[in-house]
């Protein structure tokens, strides 16, 4: 990767990235999922690794290759992601929640395959733990905490609210309604939102976006010192 960050500020920093869409089992052959492919998170992990960071990638199932030199922790459900992230969070300098974490999971995971019977089947769902919010509550001041906001409407207002409610340092606001950017696409077009204000990043591939996100993170880290 060329034209990366100008400094060596990431060297030996501990960086945790989550990626992919979690899968919530309904029965042995079915799950509830989402369209996240993990590309944004994997690019973030790759950039951090190339820049000399000690990177852990907590990943939901994806079709992507494991980035070289990264500790890969594979999980499936929101609950498993939560457990792994909480175990690793304390030692991290930077945590980036790029994963599309399920908000709800089935109350029951059926042991046997659900058979079709009546014309209608109602699923009972319960809320998962909001990992980013938990991280916002337990972290210390030096840690940089980054979240994403996937929105199909009122992008900036909703993202601004997530910055505050989840006590993050940075929210990467992502319009997931457009098909040429966001989920599943190689390109993305995001707005970076912090207490300092909003910065619109022009449409680019996810590797370039990842580099710009780290540039912003390093500025926020410097401001904390
Ligand atoms: N997130 C999380 N744990 C969850 C749900 C979301 O850590 N159970 C994180 C995501 O990884 C992302 C941020 O919270 O960094 C925002 O996710 P998003 O789905 O945009 O927002 P929600 O807070 O879940 O609210 P909603 O889906 O209702 O917009
Ligand atoms: Ca959500």
UniProtKB/TrEMBL annotation:
Keyword Calcium tagged: no
Question: Catalytic activity, per the record?
Answer: N-[(R)-4-phosphopantothenoyl]-L-cysteine + H(+) = (R)-4'-phosphopantetheine + CO2; (R)-4'-phosphopantothenate + L-cysteine + CTP = N-[(R)-4-phosphopantothenoyl]-L-cysteine + CMP + diphosphate + H(+)
Q: Where is the DNA/pantothenate metabolism flavoprotein C-terminal domain?
A: 10-219
What GO molecular function terms would the record report?
FMN binding; metal ion binding; phosphopantothenate--cysteine ligase activity; phosphopantothenoylcysteine decarboxylase activity
Chain intervals for the UniProt region annotation (Phosphopantothenate--cysteine ligase) = 15-225
Query: Recorded E.C. number(s)?
Result: 4.1.1.36, 6.3.2.5
Q: Pathway, according to UniProt?
A: Cofactor biosynthesis; coenzyme A biosynthesis; CoA from (R)-pantothenate: step 3/5; Cofactor biosynthesis; coenzyme A biosynthesis; CoA from (R)-pantothenate: step 2/5
Q: Which GO terms describe its cellular component?
A: phosphopantothenoylcysteine decarboxylase complex
User: Would the keyword Magnesium turn up in this protein's UniProt record?
Assistant: yes
The alphabetized UniProt keywords are: Coiled coil, Decarboxylase, Flavoprotein, FMN, Ligase, Lyase, Magnesium, Metal-binding, Multifunctional enzyme
Per its UniProt record, the required cofactor names are:
FMN; Mg(2+)
Q: Where does CTP bind?
A: 103, 113, 148, 162, 166
Q: What does this protein do?
A: Catalyzes two steps in the biosynthesis of coenzyme A. In the first step cysteine is conjugated to 4'-phosphopantothenate to form 4-phosphopantothenoylcysteine, in the latter compound is decarboxylated to form 4'-phosphopantotheine. Catalyzes two sequential steps in the biosynthesis of coenzyme A. In the first step cysteine is conjugated to 4'-phosphopantothenate to form 4-phosphopantothenoylcysteine. In the second step the latter compound is decarboxylated to form 4'-phosphopantotheine.
User: What's the family?
Assistant: In the C-terminal section; belongs to the PPC synthetase family.
The protein's name is Coenzyme A biosynthesis bifunctional protein CoaBC
Organism, as annotated: Halanaerobacter jeridensis
Its gene name is coaBC
Q: Which residues of the full protein are shown?
A: 176 to 400 of 400
